[in-house]
Automatic annotation (TrEMBL):
InterPro entries: HAD-like_sf (IPR036412), HAD-SF_hydro_IA (IPR006439), HAD_2 (IPR041492), HAD_sf (IPR023214). This is Uncharacterized protein. It comes from the Eukaryota. Gene3D superfamilies: 1.10.150.450, HAD superfamily/HAD-like.
């Protein structure tokens, strides 16, 4: 029984789950979608809500910082608008044609010896992250979180996740790893593939057990 427990422990990978952000993480900042989305939000605030153009940048930054998204912030301070209309205006006009198939990334992700699940949850609320972990029945200490936002990385760290900051090789507070590109994942964290190797580990006999001696 002791031998079986040790063998199973040797087979177990370090992480049960890899939790990926999408925007500017699984696809790059260079796609231009983030910049286009930001501009669409500003245009919506001016053209649809009648907010003075000179106040847009400061107000948008404040709402994003305090409420997580500009949309949530606008509703919180009293603006009434249709959610679907907002999303259609802001996201329906994005240059999605800039996103191209990425066979290298696809192959990299499919090669990971972890089952594939794709939930969508809004951040940086710690409650949202905790809810995602609860829904997926995950142990945060055995979950690796991928993000391009330092703020979201730090929120993930506060709930106990190990974290990977994507988009820079410079580690910041709250980041356990930092990747210039998601394509560098294997080089930066080769242990994610270790379970493929460990499944071949065997033992010739029982694993010795330490016995305390009083002298």
């Amino acid at each position: 029984m002791e031998y079986e427990d040790c063998y199973l422990q040797a087979q177990r990978p370090k992480y049960d789950c890899l939790l990926f952000d999408l925007d500017d993480t699984l696809y790059p900042l260079s796609s231009g979608l983030a910049a286009a989305c930001g501009q669409n939000i500003k245009d919506y605030m001016v053209e649809q809500l009648g907010i003075e153009k000179s106040k847009i940048t400061e107000l948008g930054n404040l709402l994003y910082k305090n409420y997580g998204t500009t949309m949530a912030g606008l509703r919180a301070i009293g603006y009434d608008f249709d959610y679907d209309e907002y999303h259609s205006y802001v996201h329906g006009r994005l240059p999605y044609g800039n996103l191209k198939p990425d066979p290298v990334l696809r192959s990299l992700l499919l090669s990971l010896p972890i089952r594939k699940v794709t939930p969508i949850v809004c951040k940086p609320s710690e409650i949202a992250i905790e809810r995602a972990l609860e829904i997926a029945n995950l142990n945060p200490q055995r979950t690796l979180f991928f993000e391009d936002s330092v703020r979201n990385i730090q929120a993930g760290k506060r709930v106990g996740l190990d974290t990977v900051l994507v988009g820079t090789s410079q580690r910041v507070k709250g980041a356990d790893y930092a990747l210039e590109s998601i394509h560098n994942l294997r080089e930066a964290a080769p242990e994610l593939w270790e379970s493929e190797i460990k499944t071949e580990v065997g033992y010739p006999g029982k694993v010795p057990r330490e016995t305390p001696v009083t002298a």
